């Protein structure tokens, strides 16, 4: 009598297993169908070339070769770095490690003497040719150090094949002497004829209001507003062989420029600088309107910081709606003129920073890493891993494969034999899995972050199931 019961039990178990397998297949089919219902968004349409930062002005090899994914920039300062004249030396001690990690360029704070001397962050410039070698404004060295130390830093960076970008503040000046101003009928602090370097002397004729008009596009903080229409200003900023731009490039050996507060003057100014001086350039046009950013970048013939991307990331990651990453950004309009960032010395709003870094370091544009994020606040090993992935895998055009409140999946489509990648960002509190379509048929892939231990093989139709940890990311490419 026991045998029929045993047989019945076996039949029940086998039936259960078959039902379970069948149910799993149905669930997998349904999961795949859900992803197939998402209309893939082909974001960019170009030949796939990476962001180019041009050739280095003075590297030992005479050129800088970007990685397959392009370059990564380090903002090598933060607001109120330690005073005392040692910052250039601090950065010098880090460039070898940064170069080994894959950093391709560093952006330095304004390097010349400003009104507050040894206490200034440099955004109130007085003498563009005093790099810490003249005793004026209460000190010889700047907050960051001496001219010799700056030159040593630039040389050390170039030895690591790292480019060096100067922060250029040409909207306003500070630290001039008082003089009678016939255009205002008052005394103004616009007499810069006594600057210690003796170069680029200025008077009220070089500031608004003057014979060229009452104002330009914008003034800042009540500082004297430099008039770029004045011939003396143009000569000394970008035309003269010994002027600011060409001296910084040819003598100091800077490779490019970050232009401060470009809302304060017309884009033609940066365009003229770039045409006469050369080098990489990016403008700080603080505006979330992508139309405005694109207008400025095109008219300035310059890259621009992608504030549209910054604010969308803030809303998406901290507002728990990753579908907002489908919205327009500068890198989507023109990836070759978009410099992306998560934090800078002026604004630090994004809370989910590692998700944001996983986004900019896998997407198009020129990603920037903030000094304190890298050196103090976040996991350096994780950032180094993302830098490596950017440099070696983040190639080609971009397609968004899926997005909702919690999940975002995008594909870089590869370029010049490089296979590209798939990035999966998960803003939920649990592990997620999703079927997605790759560019690879019958190919084993892996997560290059190590966050997932899966080694799935893509199907003949290039579809595959991948996973992503909670509040995290995974980045997949061919296992090679």
From TrEMBL:
It is an enzyme of class 3 (hydrolase). GO terms for molecular function: alpha-amylase activity. Residues 1-24 form the signal peptide. Keywords: Carbohydrate metabolism, Glycosidase, Hydrolase, Metal-binding, Signal. This is Alpha-amylase. Pfam families: Alpha-amy_C_pro, Alpha-amylase. Transmembrane segments: none annotated. Its cofactor is Ca(2+). Residues 71-387 form the Glycosyl hydrolase family 13 catalytic domain. The keyword Nuclease does not apply. Belongs to the glycosyl hydrolase 13 family. Its EC number is 3.2.1.1.
